[in-house]
Structures are given as C-alpha cells and as structure tokens.
Amino acid sequence: MHRETNGDNEGRYSATAPTAPGRRLVPLAPHPSSIGLQLHVCAAVIVTAACWHSAHALTLSQHLSWPSAPTRTSPATAEVMASIGVPSTPPTAASSQAATTWAALLGGLDQAPGVKEAKARAEASQAISEQSQARAWLPRVDASVRTDEQRQRYNGLATRTPSSASTLQATLPLWRPADRANARADDAVAEQAQWQASLRRQSLARELSQSYLSAVEAAEQTRLTRAYLAALEQQARAHQKRLQAGLGTVLDALETRARQEQALAQSEQLLSRLCSLTLTLNRLSGMPAAPPDGLNPHSPEDPDVTLPPLQDATAQALSSHPEVLDARAGVRGSLETIRARDAERWQPTLDATAGHSRTRQTQRFEGQSDRQDIRTEAVGLVLNWPLFSSGFQQARQREAAALLSAAQARLDDAEARVATELQDAYQRHEQARRQQARQEAVVASTQATLDAVQKAWLAGLRGTTELLDAQQRLHNARMAHASARVATLQAGSDALALLGLLDATHIAPWLGLFDAASTSFAPSSP
Fold first, then answer.
1. Mind listing the domains of the chain with CATH numbers?
2. Is residue 444 very low, low, confident or very high in pLDDT (cuts 50, 70, 90)?
3. Where are stretches of biased composition, namely Basic and acidic residues (predicted)?
C-alpha cells in the first residue's frame, strides 16, 4: 500500500499493486479500530529489534531442562548464592566425585552401630539359652579343696588339729521340669533376639532408603531451582537492556528481582534439608555418604518394581516379617514360662549324684599325735519336692499368665500393623504412579503455556508479570514431578522392606535413575 497526498485523498491509503493503463486506484479509508492494532504492531517490532538478542536467550526450555545450559550470573546474585552455599555455576564432571550408591549403603549396614548392637544382644541371649539348657539337662562336676587348723582346750589342756580335705562331686539332672521349661523359654527369648536383630537391620534399611531418596529429591529440586535462578538471571539482563533502551520500566526489573529472592530462599531451605539428610545417612550407615546430584537426566522411562498381588504379599509378610516372628516367639516363651511356674509350684526334681572325698587330719594332744586319713565315696539320688511357699509360687503364676496375655496382644498388634503398612505401601505406590503420570502431563502443559506466553511477551501482547507467572508455574510443575518420581520409589522401597526384599538385588533396576556424580551441596565429612 502507498499513501496519496493529492486532493481529497490526503492521509488515505490505497493498494500498491501495479495498475494497468487507464485503471484508477481505489482509495481505502482506514478503519478506526485498526489504528490501535497498527500502533501495537509497530511497538512490537521496535521492542523486538531493540532487545532481540536478550529476548532470544530467554528460551526457558533450555534452562529448565536437563542438562542446564551454562549461564553467567551477575555479581550480586552470585554473592547471595555463595552466602547460602549454592554455587553460581554447576560443577564440572571432572571435579565431581562419584556418588555413594544406594546398594553400597545397604550392603554396609552390617557395620552400622545399630545392627552391631542388635547382633551383640542376640549373641548374649543365645549364651543365656545355652546356660539354661546346661543347667536342665547336662551333668556337672565340681571339685573343692579345704585346709584348716582347729585349736581347742579341754579342761585347761590345749589341743591343735590341722586338717585338709579334697572333694570331687558329680551331679546328673534326671528330672527337672521347671528348669527344662525355663530353658525352652530362654530359647524362645534367644529366637526373639535373633528376629529383633533382623528387624533392626530391616528398619535401618528402610529408614536409610527413605533418607537416601529424600536426599535425591532435595538434590534434584536444588538443581531445578538453580536452573530456575539462571533463567531469572537471563530475564533480569533482558529487562535491564530494555530499561536502558527506554522500552521497559523499573517495575519489570523489581518483579524479576522479587522472584529471584524467592528462589534463593527456596534454595537455602533445600540446601539445609539436603545437609540434614546427608548427616542422617552418615549416622545410619556408619560411613561417609555422598548423595547423588539428583535424578539421572539421561535415564530411560522409570522402571516399575514387580510386586506380588496384595493378598499373596500379605500372607508372605505375615509368615516372614521379623516383627511378627518376634511376637510369635514371645508367645511361645510365655507359654513355656507358665509351664515352668506350674512345675516350680508342685513338681519335684530328681538328681543323681556321685562323690569322692579324702580328708586328712592330725590331732595333737599332750605331746601325742594322732594321724587320720579318711576316704569317702558316695553314689545316690537327691529328691526335692516343694510343699509350701507362702503364696510365692502362686504370684509367679499370675505374673506368667499376665505376660502371656501381653504377648498375645503384641502378636495381634504386630500382625495388624504389618498388614496395614503393607496395604498402605501398595496404595501409596499406585497413587504415586498415577500422580507421576499426571505431573508429566502438567509439565508438558505448563511448558507449552510458557512458550506461548513468551512469544506473546516478545510481541508485546503479554506483560512481564504474566511471563514470570508462567515461568513459576513451570518450575513448580518440574519440582512436583521430581517429588512424584521419588514418591513412587519410596512407596516401592517400603513395600520391598515389608516383604524382606529390600536389598541390592531387588533395587538394581532403580540404580540407573540416579545421577552418578555426587551432589556439590552436601557437607563434607569431618
């Protein structure tokens, strides 16, 4: 189109297509509503030309995806990030050390202080059980030696009699019902201690796995927040250039700076959580741990753990879970204790004994000495029968009955808790999988929204606040997606722990999901 300035057509527009001879140009009057659109288009062209290079750097999919593009950080932002321990640039692969793997932490649990304590207590209980068995069934041989000197006076006359004696005594229990019931009760207690050691290790493995996965989540969210800060830094530089060109306002820079402060506060909170989780890993594993630097950006689709049906898994857990087996051993021990108390009340004990002794003494009286050498050999039976104990044994019986009721209630509680926890783990695993799929859709939707808002912002059709809100929504969606992925792993590890399968073999498919490099935000080992 071209503008004509002759006659009545001044200020009007006409078509600029070539005209044939003899054809007239048809004047076109502008529509009142098209003037505002033309001004908007012109302003967008000017803004785009003024800050095209800076705006072109705002493709946030490059900053909010893995791996992050290397960006420069302003001195002010770098100073604030350094004050909270977050490096302004990500560490290079050459300078990062390998992360401690999940399987390595589980494999080293036998050296953890808690597991060592539980095993030591189990060994002590086993020794007590062996003592009870020896007292109830096995023979015993005792030797004793005695030497003394007696001095007496008979009617004013002094006598002195030195003597020595040696004895060898053998005892064989023939019938000790109370001791044998106590031995079976102590054997059940030793079995309880073994299951308690297994439960302690399983609980530590479960707690360590949850802490490890939480550390992975914190490291991944810290990395996403760092990428979000890099994108905001690019945004701030673009606003600064627009402000210098007279095309922007101070409000744009202030809004961006407010988002940066919020992201820095979030980074500080995540860093504190990551440091605490690293210290927890060190305490639980008994070794210095280096959590991975988040999730592996190049890992394929998350592998799913193969879990048996809930009904079969519940039956398996109730038949093999250490807490349930510990409670069942406690019931057996309480039953044997009741039998022991009944035997103590009225049943006799019978022992076979054999002894050999030799006594030598010399009696001196009025200058005369009388030497004696006595040898004694004895074989016999010893019978002990309780007749009356003034209510002592009846009270012990009531105590044993009360302890049996407590053991049965503990068994019921253990079975209900294991079944409930397993059902809850299955439900959380299924919900986490669905939530992960939803968050993937949310990330894709927010990414598309951000791309559209960014194009509209470049064209001058959207404001800075709308662009910052779109960036924030994408960042929140990525953070929620990372949490959903970790929640799926946590629920799966809980289910494996309750089934007794939380070991390096069964978690091997998950190891590729974590970054091989250790995080640069965790505290160094002392």
1. 100-138+177-348+393-515 (1.20.1600.10), 143-175+353-384 (2.20.25)
2. very high
3. 1-11
